[in-house]
Amino acid sequence: MKATIERAKLLRCLSHVQSVVERRNTIPILSNVLIEAAGDGLVRVMATDLDLQVVESLDAVSVDGAGAITVSAHLLFDIARKLPDGSQVSLEAADNRMTVKAGRSRFSLPTLPRDDFPVIVEGDLPTSFELPAKVLAELIDRTRFAISTEETRYYLNGIFLHVADEDTPVLKAAATDGHRLARFTIDRPDGAAGMPDVIVPRKAVAELRKLLEEAGDSNVLIDLSASKVRFTLGGEGGMVLTSKLIDGTFPDYSRVIPTGNDKLLKLDPRSFFQGVDRVATIATEKTRAVKIGLETDKVVLSVTSPDNGTAAEEVPASYSSEPLEIGFNANYLKDILGQIDGDTVELHLADAGAPTLIRQDDSSPALYVLMPMRV
User: Where is the DNA polymerase III beta sliding clamp central domain positioned along the sequence (predicted)?
Assistant: First the structure.
């Protein structure tokens, strides 16, 4: 195999694929990327961790010898990063080594044969639909902060996607860690009818979100079955991310979305966020809770810490129900408030022990539920 590639293209491609590769691997081949050069001048670069696979195609300056080889992902990425701007990088594989040349630099790296490189077998992916990259990015951003990191509850370690028939057919994304729930709803895309309920793993979500940064106004093709999902960005010669799905059942989260919370609090999400952030400065691990006292048209935020003293702040608000005191984890509350773009946020409350519904307004596609803490 022999190919010459512009450094900028090679670097961008390697930055996408190498982040899939785990730093510590017991299987040596999984530390490598597979580089395939075809006679038509196209070079494919692939990385996998056995659950997730990213393939990117790029145009080479020239391909003088078709072939395929695997080489250390992080090593090649580090080399490409340090090569001079504007240089052309020559990759040549022979005798179990890969020679990398650019300008006056020359590296000789060990390789492993391509036949040992594992590829995820996609099988049949019967459901196929497209989403604008911007919509898919927002769907991820509005929900992924609530993904659980507890490995024991593996079925919560991802974003749950499912279709539903309400007033109109919709596609919903949901994530929860048991303390908070995030849900984002969009119109059901053409082709998504009858799709299986799927849980996209946390790592696949993170890698996909990185790839979407450069997708611009394009569409993303999504093909899935009950066990695999494939995202294709940038059409032919673009990037393809394939992931196994989490084999588990996501809980019926609709049961925890409160419908009878009759106390309505409206306020500016930015001033609320800043107030919570300020009083939480003195909170410690033991006292992560911020107490929220609701009175007519104002909110009193307070934190009491046995080590660091007390803090309190008043925030103007619209509230006309009877007074109420409720506690929330300050970080969880800030995570949710950080998702609200508008000038007002609505909190629908019942009492100090019941989950609170948070949203921008009743037409907002994003909805959040936060469990209270005892304070």
Answer: 130-252
Q: Are 182 and 143 in contact (CB under 8 A)?
A: yes
293-331 pLDDT, tens digit per residue, is 999 999 999 999 888 899 999 999 999 999 999 999 999
Same domain, 102 and 51: yes
**3-class SS at 67?**
strand
Of residues 83, 104, 98, the one with CA closest to residue 3: 98
Sign of CA dihedral 362, 364, 367, 370: negative
Q: What is the DSSP string of 159-207?
A: EEEEEEESSSEEEEEEEE-SSEEEEEEEEPPTT-TTPPPEEEEHHHHHH
Q: Tell me how crowded residue 276 is: count the other CB atoms within 10 A of its CB.
A: 22
Q: Count the Cβ atoms, other than its own, within 10 Å of residue 33.
A: 26
Residues 251 and 274 occupy one common structural domain: no
- Looking at the structure of the chain, the number of domains it has is 3
> At 235, is the pLDDT very low, low, confident or very high (cuts 50, 70, 90)?
low
Dig out the tokens for 288 from the structure: 């992560």
For residue 168, give the CATH number of its domain: 3.10.150.10
The answer as to whether 121 is a domain residue is no
- Edge-first strand listing for the sheet containing 345-349: 198-201, 158-165, 169-176, 180-187, 366-370, 356-359, 345-349, 263-267
Question: What is the pLDDT of the chain when averaged over all its residues?
Answer: 95
Q: Which of 57, 90, 116 is the last residue of a domain?
A: 116
